[in-house]
Amino acid sequence: MRLASGTAIAAVTVATALCGGITLTLTGIAHNQVPRSLGGVGTIMIALTATVLLVIHKWVTDTRNERSILAATQRETQAERTRYIAAQAALDNERTRMRRDLDAEHVALAERARVEREALDDEFEARRGDLINETMEATVKMFHNGQFAPDTRRGATLIQFPQPQPNRSREHGVVGP
Fold first, then answer.
1. Of the residues 11, 69, 123, 128, which has the maximum number of CB atoms within 10 A of its CB?
2. For residue range 96-148, what is the model confidence (pLDDT) as tens digits?
3. What's the 3-state SS for the chain?
4. Cβ–Cβ < 8 Å for 69, 54
């Protein structure tokens, strides 16, 4: 048990008092002097009380274990913080890479859609001319075959006015239509 300078001085003082108390008690017993023996016993009790207080003081103020636990906890916390920062950086890098990949894919898809649209427009324009030619040929053939001849059977349509209805009898003052 390592003691601080003040505690070491107190421990030496207590040890001296204890030795003095034992000596005083033994001398009192040897010479048959009760007051000297009681004084020695009192000094021993005071020295033992002081020893107990020193041990309690040391036990209460000794923080070596707590400091070592705190240091270990701080190291673990720092290591966890470092891992967290590294994970955060990796996540940011991954997000950046994914954003770049998505942007590149978006550009590639837009370009591909533009190329396909142009190809479809070209194909439609080429096919449009053929469709117009086919339609014109079919129309000319239909004219020659008489399928588009005007319909002469139709005449004018006469719209008939409604016929008046016979008068109904007026009974009991009821007004009719």
1. 11
2. 999 999 999 999 999 999 999 999 988 888 888 888 888 888 888 888 887 76
3. CCCCHHHHHHHHHHHHHHHHHHHHHHHHHHCCCHHHHHHHHHHHHHHHHHHHHHHHHHHHHCCHHHHHHHHHHHHHHHHHHHHHHHHHHHHHHHHHHHHHHHHHHHHHHHHHHHHHHHHHHHHHHHHHHHHHHHHHHHHHHHHHHCCCCCCCCCCCCCCCCCCCCCCCCCCCCCCCC
4. no
Answer yes or no: are the C-beta atoms of 26 and 49 closer than 8 Å: no
Residue type, 106: H
Tens of pLDDT, residue by residue over 30-75, are: 999 888 888 888 888 988 888 888 888 888 887 888 899 999 999 9
